[in-house]
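Incident log, entry 3
Record: Phosphate transport system permease protein PstA (304 residues)
Problem: checksum mismatch between cached and fresh output.
Input:
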Amino acid sequence: MSALSPARPAGSGMDLTNSRSKARGVRNAAATVIIVACFLLALVPLAWILWTVGSKGFHLLLDLNWWEQSQLGMTSRTAGGGAYHAIMGSLIIALGSAVVSVPVGVFGAIYLVEYGRGGPIARAVSFMVDILTGIPSIVAALFVYALWVTLLGFGRTGFAVSLSLVLLMVPTVLRLTEEVLRLVPNELREASAALGVPRWKTILKVVVPTAFSGIVTGVVLGLARIMGETAPLLILGPYTAAINFNPFAGNMAALPTMINQDRTESLQPAVDRTWAAALTLVLLVLVLNLLARAVARFSAVRKR
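Fresh output:
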């Protein structure tokens, strides 16, 4: 004798589905509102900073002398002069860091992806890179000061600042290059190996060209990372109001140290120069980030 199952009211299953759907819709709407609110809240300090720096420093950037002259002969009481010496100093120091950081970062990433493959040396390199990623800039500056200035007896120059910034730039370049190399399809490597091409030539002719745009993006982001650092400049690069193109001799100005030089002054000409130098630094970093995004947009490595 078979037992009859109790009949369920018509439409009860549909009502349950509708109630669950409505509950999910409410939760989704609430999560969307919270995320948008957090995003707008995060934009408030950013917009405030940009508005403050822009409104107080923009008028000096419209003067051609700001881009062509230095602060030699200027005092806190005299208006005029420019930031040419500091802009060139920042670019020269960043270029010196890139000359060392780019080969180390790119070749290190190639080793981790193409040769290391989880070996003991690769694990040690990854561990050291992770440590360098979180190291404060002042610690890097003090290390270079102890080694370069105190132990070896060299002077406090722009090149010494570049050496300390290398410790900050290498992890960024290496990690970003490592990620973009991992995006290169293995089929390309296997096809090259099937044709009898040596591994080093496959890396040089296939892997690196495929990931070239991503590597450039990593380099540009690494430069943007170090452009605003101040501690290495204060410890290793004394400020000068004159133009100096030689990073191996003499004091060299940079935009962060120019800001630090005038920030303690209460007179209006010095205050204006402080805000204008800050805005110039923001614009330089912004240009580098936009350049990195433009390069990444046309990257040859794309997910399929």
